[in-house]
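Hi support team,

I submitted a single chain yesterday and got back a structure, but I'm not sure I'm reading the C-alpha cell output correctly. Could someone confirm the output below corresponds to the sequence I sent? I've pasted both exactly as they appear in my results page.

Thanks,
R.
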Amino acid sequence: MPNTEMMLDRLRFQEIDQDVIENLREAKQLLEPELDNMLDEFYEQILEEPLIRSVFSDEESIRRARDAQKKHWLETLLGGRLDSSYFKKAERIGRAHARVGLTPDWYIGGYSKMLVRFIQHISTVTDRDTTAIIESLCKAVLLDLDLVIHCYLEAKDKQIREILARATSFGSDMEQLNVELAQKVEQITERTSQLKTEDRLYVHAESHRTGAFARLKALFRGE
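Hi R., thanks for writing in. Yes, this is the structure output for that exact sequence:
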C-alpha cells in the first residue's frame, strides 16, 4: 500500500507542486466541455480489442467504467486532488487490473491515447501559451501511470508469492506422503514375508500330522 513517504517522494521527484496543481485546474476548464466526446471515442476504440472487451461483462459495466474514468479525470487528476485518497485509489485500480489480467501495456496505451487527445485539444482551444498547462498535465498523467503500475506489480508479486507458498507446501506434503507410503510398503513387505514363513511352517506341520495319521490308520487296519 502506498505510504506517506512514498507519496511525498513521488510528488517531489516529479516536481508536482502548487503551481502544477493550479495548471491542472486550468486544464480542467479547457477539457471538461469536450471530455464526454473524448471518452466516447476512446471507449469505442479500445473496445475493438478482444482482450479489453473481455474485461467487461456487459454494457452496464462499460458505462460504469466510463463514468468512473470521467470522475477520475475531472475530480482527481485535473482537480489537483493528489492526496492520500488518490494514492489509495491508484492501488485499488492496480489490484483490479492484476485480478482481471489487464497488463500495463494496455493501460499505458490507453493513457497515451487520452493524453494525445488532451494535448491536441488544449493546443487548439485557446490562443494563449499553454506550455505550462501541458507540462503539468503530462506530469499528472505519468504520476497516475506510475502509481497504478507500481500497485499492479505489487499485486502480481503477491500472487506469485502465494503460488510459490502453495507449491512449497504441496511439495512438503507430497514428500511427507512419500515417506509415509514407503513406511507402509515396508510394513506390508515385512508382514507378507512373515505370513509366507508362517504358511510354510503350517504346511510342514500339516504334512507331518497327515503322515502320522496315515501310519496310525494303517496300524489299526493291520496293514
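A quick pointer for reading it: The chain has a mean pLDDT of 81. Let us know if anything else looks off.

Best,
Support desk
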